[in-house]
Design brief:
The protein is mainly alpha-helical. It is built from 17 helices and no strands.
Length: 402
């Protein structure tokens, strides 16, 4: 992996670790700060809100600036936010700091993806983007488990301090290895062009597919522990290993999805959403069989993360010379997906439909995402046909299908 991509991946590794480790440390945070677990849980929502708000705003505000300094500034804010989390005196201040720490998340992912794609040829863009996303998947396999163990052994503040140091190291790596590059857009109309690109119907449909596609995974993943323990009969210790299997699947999906998306982004999205729906439906049966359960968890992780480089490449194709805000908006969409999936999954459990019901919800969301994508693909084909008809000579135009 080129050092520039490794530097960007180190940044996404730190971001992925801090995003998900809080879920495993909520009891420690609640106990130390003297608040109910339910109140500590708002820290997850605070960070997600920061991502949703910060991604388009920061991407738009920095669109005319050189990429490397912006990446460094975003990683600097992230590092300082985690170090501040480590010394926050109470739940209120920690909530504010977590929101602020989430602000650079989406903008960094979006700009890192655009930067990575710009460093390689057009036929290697998705592979380059997948290398950036690899940091996120490695965070799920290695970073989050180790950071959780550290927090349980040395206190949750130690975890955020270490993640803050990782952020500082990533900042240095970006400064040292990411090449200086022109801003994503220039001129008075730069931001206007970025916003206009974001409002394209095809971009909106693609972002909607992100919401439903990633929401499918989060509907299941948010409740996978009670599924495995209460229904599958797995021990708590085994569940930790099974979650690592999901992370390994995500890693494989990021790599393989990047390679497939270099050839056919839209086709890759179709296959992944269809396969994800099938895997989630099958989990109702496979959860009762250890080997099949492992395969299902690996498949769910793989097909869900393979969506990442594919959707990133598709949006880069759609927006052309105005990619920054749209790329950052993918992160906002994925965090909305997180909330939507977890909320719908919780609703069916609360309705008494059982712990496996979220897998059916997830499958349904994947199918909706597939339908949205099919609509997008159909409109694209129709547009091409109209363009071909408009460009055809008068005597042959009537032969071109409308």
């Amino acid at each position: 992996m080129p050092l520039a991509l490794l530097a960007l991946a180190l940044g996404t590794f730190g971001i992925g670790t801090t995003e998900f480790v809080i879920m495993g440390l909520l009891p420690e945070v609640a106990g130390d700060l003297g608040v109910p677990l339910s109140e500590a849980g708002h820290l997850v929502s605070a960070y997600a809100a920061g991502v949703v708000v910060g991604a388009p705003l920061l991407a738009g505000a920095t669109v005319k600036l050189p990429r490397r300094p912006v990446l460094m500034a975003l990683m600097g804010v992230f590092a300082v936010g985690n170090l501040a989390s480590a010394i926050a005196p109470g739940i209120g201040s920690l909530m504010v700091v977590r929101f602020l720490t989430g602000l650079p998340h989406g903008a960094f992912f979006g700009l890192a993806s655009v930067t990575a794609a710009a460093m390689v040829g057009r036929d290697r863009r998705a592979t380059a983007v997948s290398r950036v996303f690899l940091g996120l998947t490695v965070a799920n396999v290695v970073g989050v488990p180790l950071a959780t163990l550290l927090g349980q052994a040395a206190g949750w503040r130690a975890t955020f301090a270490v993640v803050g140091v990782i952020g500082l190291v990533a900042l240095g790596a970006v400064a040292a290895f990411v090449p200086a590059a022109a801003p994503a857009a220039t001129g008075k109309g730069a931001l206007r062009g970025e916003v206009a690109a974001l409002r394209q119907p095809q971009v909106v449909l693609s972002l909607a597919a992100v919401v439903f596609g990633f929401g499918a995974m989060f509907a299941c993943y948010s409740y996978v522990t009670p599924m495995l323990t209460e229904v599958g009969g797995f021990s708590t210790a085994t569940v930790t290993l099974l979650l690592a299997v999901v992370g390994l699947g995500m890693t494989a999906g990021s790599v393989l999805g990047g390679r497939a998306a270099d050839r056919a982004p839209l086709g890759t999205l179709y296959v992944c959403l269809l396969a994800l729906a099938g895997v989630l439906v099958s989990f109702v049966v496979t959860v009762h069989h250890p080997v099949l359960a492992v395969l299902s968890l690996f498949g769910a992780g793989m097909f869900s993360l393979a969506l990442g480089p594919a959707i990133q490449t598709r949006i880069l194709d759609l927006v052309g010379e105005a990619p920054t805000v749209a790329s950052a908006a993918i992160q906002s969409a994925s965090n909305i997906a997180n909330s939507l999936g977890a909320w719908l999954g919780g609703m069916v459990i609360a309705a008494g439909l059982g712990y496996l019901a979220p897998t059916i919800v997830g499958a349904a969301l994947a199918v909706v995402g597939l339908a949205v994508l099919a609509l997008s693909g159909g409109l694209e084909v129709r547009g091409r046909r109209r363009s071909a008809a408009a460009e055809a000579p008068d005597e042959t135009r009537e032969l071109v299908p409308a």
